[in-house]
Amino acid sequence: MELQERKNDNGDLKPDVSKDTFQRIIGSFGRYQFWLCILIFLCKFFVAFNQMAVIFYAPKVQYTCEDTKAETCPCSQPVYNTSIFTNTITMEWDLICDKKWLANLTQTLFQVGTLLGSVLFGMASDRFGRKKPLLVAVVLQLASSTLSAYAPNYWSFTLSRVLIGVSVGGVMVTTFVLLMEFIGNEYRHVISALYQAPFNMGHMLLPLCAYFVRDYTKFLLVTSLPSAILLCYFCLIPESARWLIAVKKTEEAIVILERVAKVNNRQTNVRSEVEAYERTLTGNNQKGNLSDLFRTPNLRKNIICMSFNWMTCSYCFYGVSQYVGHLSGNVFINVAASASVSLLGSFVSIPLMKIAGRKTVVIVFNFICALCLITLIFVPSGTLSVVLACTGVVSSFIVFVVVYLYCTELFPTVVRNAAIGFSSMMARVGSMLAPFVIDGGDIAYWVPPLGFAILPVLACWVTFFLPETKDCDLMTTIEEGEVFGKKTKDVQTK
């Protein structure tokens, strides 16, 4: 769907000369976009390393007390079982008995850091551009993840994890939006799905690293130091031309677009195309912020509905994965298998987004996720219950993949990163709520599946209030975002 016509200030229809401007200049997907994908996909491996590392630096460990020769509390002199892991943070700082909760607190605070990073870097990216905040996030990630391996005590280690979370949130919101702003409509659904695949592959690599490096300090170094490769972003990552034009830095945008057009062998007059596009932009908003998402009714409705979907899919994906987790067997194989299921979801989402609208996919797979979880209440523990739970995990991850793209297309350039950042913040809220639902199993066996099923049901209903964005050109101004989806007669489907 492309904006074919727009109304001028007098209400008359006029040709939309901005239609496909960026695709006319640089193409939907060429050599430049290919190499940009390779560069940006690299960072997702390290996002996975940092987000999922808790599985191996703070696993469940067995111990015996020297005086009782059993696993009892309190225990002043524990002797840990080092047959699987030679050292973990639990062993290092005796996080057992009355201090057992501290191991989980580290990951909870990591998610708090990710929440803060998503919002702060999202707003910074709309204010200062995509590239500068990304570079700050990359440097912060390398420094804090490396320092975490040398933390002398629990609290300094936890602080380093919070900072890593902040950097991870920043990397995620800036790289995705930057990438989507260079990709044309035709390939946007494919690239948005493939963007998630390196995370899954990083998740699959993690147990391999942990298998050969059983000490948590060395493990953290092995998974942190390679992220130094991302420092190449200082030289190789471009600023978003869409953002530059939105904030009236036209000359800088033209330089970037001319370079991309040359690499992609595009024959076009970049300056005249950009100047024609600029004349179509309306409104005084040159730089947006988080408050702009809530200032007008249509954008406010869209951000509330979208962020609820992000919270739901994160809540279900991390929660149900943990609910199915701690399976008997080899921990390294279990984690690799879990990551493989998620990778399947990334690839399945590609044809789904090609043949169906974003709105349809989100509604259908929220429903499938809810149905599987409700059915779990009536199914005894066994193979079928695991299959149902895994189907719920895959369904929620497919929704996760789609809402990344959906959110990008739904909001204009000047507030796009703020929208992604706020939605990502709500996703962290969902992931922090999930463990409390799992603990509900101590009350009754049906509490966790029912608790996880409620939000996907609500998300199905909420999504009906969102407009479809499939095949739409990315919007630029607040005014475009506010009218989008309100008057369908002004928007024609191609």
Estimate what percentage of residues fall within beta strands. under 5%
Q: CA-to-CA gap between the ends?
A: 5 Å
| Overall geometric form | globular
What's the total helix number?
22
Radius of gyration using CA atoms only: 24 Å
Biggest sheet strand line-up: 1-2
Indicate the structural class: mainly alpha
Brief account:
This protein has 22 helices and four strands. The protein has helices at 21-26, 31-52, 54-57, 89-93, 101-128, 131-148, 154-180, 185-194, 197-212, 216-224, 233-236, 241-246, 250-263, 270-280, 292-295, 297-324, 331-355, 358-376, 383-410, 413-438, 447-463, 478-483, and strands spanning 5-7, 13-15, 63-65, 78-80.
How would you describe this structure to a colleague?
By secondary structure, this protein is mainly α. It has helices at residues 21-26, 31-52, 54-57, 89-93, 101-128, 131-148, 154-180, 185-194, 197-212, 216-224, 233-236, 241-246, 250-263, 270-280, 292-295, 297-324, 331-355, 358-376, 383-410, 413-438, 447-463, 478-483; strands at residues 5-7, 13-15, 63-65, 78-80. A two-stranded antiparallel sheet has the order 1-2. Strands 3-4 form a two-stranded antiparallel ribbon. Helix 6 runs antiparallel to helix 7 (154-180). The longest helix has 28 residues, at 101-128. It is globular, with a radius of gyration of 24 Å. The termini are close together. The model is unreliable at 1-19 and 488-494 (pLDDT under 50).
